[in-house]
Amino acid sequence: MTKPAKPTMADVAERAGVSPATVARVLYENGYVSAKKRAIVRAALHETGYRPNVMARALRTARSFTLGMVVSESRLNAFHPYVAHEVQLEALKHGYTVLTLNNGESEKIERDGVQRLLDQRVDAVIFCAALNPENVRLIAGAGVPTVQIEHEGAKVGWFSLVDAMPGLREAVDHLRALGHSRIGYVGGQRCARRTESREIKSPEAQRVDGFRRAMKMAGLDAPEHYIRLGPYYMERADRQPGWTMAEELLSLPEPPTALLVGSDLLAAGALQAIHHVGLSAPEDVSIIGYDNTMAEILTPPLTSIAQPIHELGRNAVTMALEAIADPDAAPRRITVPTKLVIRSSTAAPSR
Q: What is the model's pLDDT at position 55?
């Protein structure tokens, strides 16, 4: 029995009443096509069941139409897989596949995985984020474009970055408006070796610096004994760092009436600490997280500073494709702001 012939781009063009070039522009989002014609072409693609021949396209253009993505350990911290998901969705829109490497918090795994990505001839690599900036340099040195998300590990390539300050300012102003003046901070502490220059501040350092600035702008004190920094989580620990650091602040002779926490993961531990010492949120202690990744599923639903996850992923792919299309293009950076999302974990301080 003879197999039916696979539909071609010419078949799609004939059904849609347009040229094959117009079909290609719609498929790969490369060039202008009116909204009306775009809808007609998409309908024809669906009706014919046409699928582009990726291998033939790769041979014709000397590209693999594959992006590499390196993400940090994500068993508890939802931020990295959320960003990776947005990168994948955006890449698919442009006909690209994403090969994702989870470095497992291991520099060896990251190094070996980066070499594998090069062996697979990926067209660009997106980092969120590199454990060792030398691995970003390795990719760039091979002539493959790099994009770093949120974290500036190596001073090379393109950057999709976050401005933490707007959300931090909103958070402090929100707590101040509720009547809080004693505000503590619990945050992550990133390893210094993840940046190749002391001039580069990690996202964690940017957040705690932003907290201090926001407090000063609000006319409030931010004493150092109200600030705790530590790891995001610990293996086989009965109490995660967010719990431990928050409990230390709540045990002070004059404890803070509100906590601003540098990630939702740490905030989850802080909520456990509040419960453990016999208090409740927000009646006794108000709490604000950062990331807005698990805020809705905590109890109470967490007021949180939202990271622009969709924009971070979309901008990273956009810049990667720009760099692929024009290897001589000057690398650039796109920075997007955070914003506060208010839920049920903040209220006026109790008497």
A: 47
CA 243 – CA 273 distance, rounded (Å):
5
pLDDT tens digits for 196-251? 877 788 899 999 999 999 999 999 999 999 999 999 888 777 888 999 999 999 99
The band of 15, judged by pLDDT with boundaries at 50, 70 and 90, is confident
Is the whole model's pTM more than 0.90, yes or no? Answer: no
Architecture label for domain 61-162+309-337: 3-Layer(aba) Sandwich (3.40)
9-52 CATH: 1.10.260.40
What pLDDT, in 10s, does the model give residues 120-169? 899 999 999 898 999 999 999 999 999 999 999 999 999 999 999 999 99
Strand partners, 125: 68, 146
Q: What is the pLDDT of residue 216?
A: 98
3 state SS of 92: helix
Closest listed residue to residue 149, CA positions, set 245, 83, 235:
83
The residue-averaged pLDDT of 303-319 equals: 97
| Separation between Cα atoms, residue 20 and residue 44, nearest integer Å | 12
Indicate the average pLDDT of the chain. 90
Element (H, E) at 117: helix 107-119
Nearest to 110 by CA among 143, 81, 72: 72
- Written as one string, the DSSP assignment of 159-196 is EEEEE-HHHHHHHHHHHHHHT---EEEEEE---GGGSS
Q: Which amino acid makes up residue 331? A: P
Pairing type for strands 339-341 and 303-306 reads antiparallel
Inter-residue contact 149 to 316 (CB < 8 Å): yes
Q: How far is CA 278 from CA 253, 274, 275, in A?
A: 16, 7, 5
Kindly report the backbone phi and psi dihedral angles of residue 99, in degrees, each rounded to the nearest multiple of 5, phi listed first: -95, 115
Contacts of 159 (CB under 8 A, 6+ apart): 147, 148, 149, 152, 331, 332, 333, 334
Which residues, in sequence order, are bridge partners of residue 146?
125
In words, the CATH class of domain 163-307 is alpha beta
